[in-house]
Design brief:
This protein is of the alpha/beta class. Helix content is about 20%, strand content about 30%. The longest helix has 15 residues, at about 80-95.
């Protein structure tokens, strides 16, 4: 099974995707914003973001295979339970696979053949609570879920949304946290939230994607350095291909990277290893 992992999606008008990024059996995308007409903003730090069905559908229907979206992130609850419910209703109508929201933070796996996906974020805004629909967040109970699914023979993918924003290196804490997920039985950790590429790591022959960056976004909103390009990781649990994606004239341009050649990855490996080795 050929999988492609993308970064953050904030749908905009007239985006054309090349065949190189639409051919996989399953495309994994972090849907950063709710699909809603609600105007009921929650009180939070930062902007309340949303999109509409038409924009989302124009992008998502360009993929030839199945699409899975992670909706466990810090913007999915920007318009409360109403916005979340409208989003999952639309995803259901379009036949888009998803996970990442629940009541009572009941993190349930999403199964695709022999793959089990667990979606959760760090504690921020719009969180699941007692009898309240919200985004799933990390608790230590996730380790048992990973362990049990691994022992049942599933390939375990974690869709996480845990990072320092706008920084090209993941923190030593996050690297240790993700290593512990692999130690518990995870096969792939697909992480978003950094909004800039943070590179990847092979740990115990398992794959950690620290941050893909912004896949599709409003370039007028994202003006910070490194926020208008991303990585697409293509993986079949054996071979890994890395593609660099940039947006130009409403078209996604694709450039295949041979090996670990991207500077942020080289920097994050060297600097993070230095920090970890000298943090004790």
């Amino acid at each position: 099974m050929n999988l492609q992992f993308f970064g953050d999606l904030f749908p905009v008008e007239n985006i054309k995707l090349p065949d190189d990024v639409t051919h996989s059996d399953i495309a994994f995308i972090n849907l950063e914003v709710p699909i809603t007409q609600s105007e009921k903003k929650i009180l939070k730090a930062g902007p309340n973001l949303k999109t509409n069905r038409e924009l989302f559908e124009k992008i998502i229907t360009q993929f030839k295979g199945k699409v899975f979206v992670n909706i466990a992130n810090n913007h999915m609850g920007d318009f409360g339970e109403e916005g979340i419910q409208e989003t999952i209703n639309i995803l259901d109508e379009l036949g888009i696979m998803y996970s990442g929201v629940s009541k009572n933070n009941q993190i349930q796996p999403y199964f695709i053949e022999n793959i089990a996906i667990l979606s959760f974020c760090e504690k921020q805004f719009g969180l699941s609570d007692f009898n309240k629909l919200g985004v799933n967040y990390f608790t230590p109970e996730i380790y048992k879920s990973i362990y049990d699914l691994h022992n049942l023979g599933y390939k375990v993918i974690l869709a996480t949304h845990i990072a320092e924003e706008m920084i090209i290196w993941q923190s030593p804490y996050i690297q240790k946290l993700f290593h512990s997920f692999i130690d518990s039985g995870a096969d792939i950790i697909w992480n978003t939230h950094s909004h800039v590429p943070q590179g990847y790591e092979k740990y115990k022959d398992k794959l950690i994607l620290y941050g893909n960056g912004n896949f599709i976004m409003d370039t007028s909103r994202w003006t910070e350095k490194n926020t208008c390009w991303s990585y697409c990781y293509e993986y079949n649990f054996d071979k890994l291909n890395v593609m660099e994606l940039t947006v130009k004239d409403n078209t996604i341009l694709c450039n295949e990277l041979k090996g670990l050649v991207c500077m942020p990855s080289l920097q994050h490996d060297a600097i993070s290893n230095h920090l970890i080795n000298n943090s004790n």
